[in-house]
Amino acid sequence: MSNLLHVCIYNAEPESSKTLQAQIGSLNFVRLVGEVGSPDELANLLHRATVNLVFFHLDPDPEPIVEVIDGVSTKYPELALVAISHKSGPDAILAPMRAGCDQFVCEPIDHNDLANAVARVASRRLLSNTKSRCICVVGASGGAGATSIACNLALEIGNIVDRDCALVDLDLQFGDVALNFDCEPRYTMYDLAESGSELDRSILSTTVTTLPCKVALLARPETIEQADNITPEIIHRVLELLTGVYENVVIDVPGHFDVRTIAAMGQADLILVVCQLQVPSLRNAKRFMDTLKHMGVPEERIEVVINRSDGRSGRLTEQHVEETMKKAVFASVPNDYQFVARSIDFGRPIAALDRNSPVRAAIRKMARKIVSGPTVAPPEKEQRKGLFSRLLAK
Ligand SMILES: Nc1ncnc2c1ncn2[C@@H]1O[C@H](COP(=O)(O)OP(=O)(O)OP(=O)(O)O)[C@@H](O)[C@H]1O
Ligand SMILES: [Mg+2]
Description:
By secondary structure, the chain is an alpha/beta fold. It has helices at 17-25, 39-48, 62-75, 90-99, 111-126, 146-161, 177-180, 189-194, 201-207, 232-245, 259-265, 279-294, 318-325, 337-346, 350-353, 358-372, 381-393; strands spanning 5-11, 30-36, 53-57, 80-85, 103-106, 133-139, 165-169, 209-211, 215-218, 248-253, 270-275, 302-307, 331-333.
């Protein structure tokens, strides 16, 4: 199965069509293949297109539609079925569920409810082989610009693929990812840790804060003490869940090796090591890369990003970086301190301040390069597990 859910809408109420299409079309991993309004049209669509899930809009008259659900669930048992209706009394919910629906979503539709319903169906019946991209952004030295790049990269990726990109703040004590978006998340990674063995996709999707700029943020714990509760096992599980729901997951990783950062980097498809054109930064970038390689991370999964690549009177050039790291620089982000500092202070992403900023253009170019490949072959699940335990065992 591909990494997209192919869905169609069964809707006999034309006035609802636009809203339903917009809500369903905005879900991650979902491709809307069509809308139909009668059993014949549905049969036709199922015959000519691949469909994994059908949304049945029950309004205004549920009865005949429940009959259609009954027929469809018998004839196409492999199809996932989700009912949507304004009526949410016990009978209104029971009838479509008895007829074979997997989930019921009330109108007006809450995006998280809908995402939860789809995630539940998907995890039970459909997306067993979801592939996604997990990108760790890590600074080779303090203040290298990892957080600024991670935040703006997630936003650009989300906008390029037109799907929310997950963004995780793994700087558990002092992370400022949420501040970069001027947002105060209701829930944080601490809530996930608290949910213990209950932790599943639906808990995850209520914990994530979905921002209008196509970023789905998983914030660091509120207090410094709470950070202690985030174990490497939780990070591992959270990333496993996130990559099952989001096509792209960007993680802001603090620049040091410990069991938690290793847990994240062990699961990454791509690790972007951010350095500046200064000797200590470059030296640490090299040490960082060597350590990752030594731990078994394949070299092609590690890339170097130069931040503040101009405007410094330093002697180092991009060529020095390539010679030292023995690989081509993946991306270079120019220097613009006033502008980037303003973006952070106002909590407004770079693209929102100035779409034409050279810093933004460089990060967008990097985002394009990441989403359009050359893609890194995702490690097999078993391989990832092995790498993870190996890294943690060190
Ligand atoms: N391209 C850039 N041009 C100019 N200044 C930049 C650029 N990128 C980041 N900065 C500035 O560098 C500082 C550190 O940025 P940021 O917080 O993103 O780095 P970091 O690597 O996450 O730091 P930390 O090690 O504290 O986590 C900020 O003041 C930011 O304004
Ligand atoms: Mg940071």
